[in-house]
């Protein structure tokens, strides 16, 4: 069931999912890995390179800022290059950035510049990956496919944390970035050679498999609303990922257990993303309708964190991450279903909000903690999700009104 519009492509024959999903998920994880790994290696970068916590945070923010600025033009570029060339180009950029960080990043400006390069790769990879799935996955399985792809983000956070004891503390922090580059190369080489030959019939696809520049079906105003929803959700998620561990420890939770809070949340988020995608495919649920519920329930989960006692940091991450960080797959599904003519260009615009929120969450979170408290941070995070639920309801009403006007 399409999200307020029907996509004719769902009746076409597409590339078997098992050949496409793993590569797209792995590639998406590699796109996010440089910035998540930098956060995980904060102690090593401060001790061995001499960077301050502020410089590390600003370097990570530089990656998301570049991605936000370039997301819309990279979406249009993905339409021109086609999904395979766009995705591989983005992955090559991510690989180069990780190798360059390992070899050359010995100051704040060098790290910020190279993470900015990683942000460029991420900006191209996201719409290219969406386009890859839209053109090679059956419509009846697209929700789960996009959920699998979006699970690469929390998987990058999990892998970044695991790289610290496994690599950084044994052979050196530089080799953690090298390991990430090796994984990215695996994704590049793992593309099926005949992938482009099995793309669905699409009026904006050329005979060579590249796509002509196309305009999104929805107007700019509606896509800006999508970007606003994404920004609000990503702001809350960025604050949770950045500060839930330190908040748990500050509440009195044992440091060892506090370190597991983010791992638990990331794992719950991955499982929930996959479950949400499967349910939307299986039961024909409108993605934007489920999106509203996820934002609302996630907001209540984050609100529970505001009690700010050790027990809540054990309980609250389950609903907070299961709902408040499970929406990205459905978010992209709703965008691509309502923009079948140019899914990459459309998600390039909507992704701007996600990147902005990803940068704002940790930045605003740090300011709130320094000038207020963790309780105030979680109240802020809950309010952004609840506001996002309200905006998504308004967006759904506007899309319905547009559909009725066209019919």
Please name the CATH architecture: Up-down Bundle
Rg over alpha carbons: 20 Å
Uncertain runs are: 5-16, 196-213
CATH topology: Growth Hormone, Chain: A
CATH superfamily: MFS general substrate transporter like domains
Principal-axis shape: globular
Which H/E pattern describes the elements?
HHHHHHHHHHHHHHHH
Total count of helical runs of at least 4 residues: 16
Describe the structure.
The chain has 407 residues and is an all-alpha fold. The chain has a single domain, classed as Growth Hormone, Chain: A, CATH 1.20.1250. It has 16 helices and no strands. The longest helix has 33 residues. The two termini are 18 Å apart.
List the helices and strands and how they pair.
Blueprint: H1 17-40, H2 42-49, H3 53-81, H4 83-104, H5 108-136, H6 142-150, H7 152-168, H8 173-189, H9 220-250, H10 255-283, H11 287-305, H12 310-315, H13 317-324, H14 328-337, H15 343-371, H16 374-406
Descriptors:
mainly alpha; 16 helices; Growth Hormone, Chain: A; 407 residues; 79% helix
Concise account of the structure shown:
The chain is mostly helical and 407 residues long.
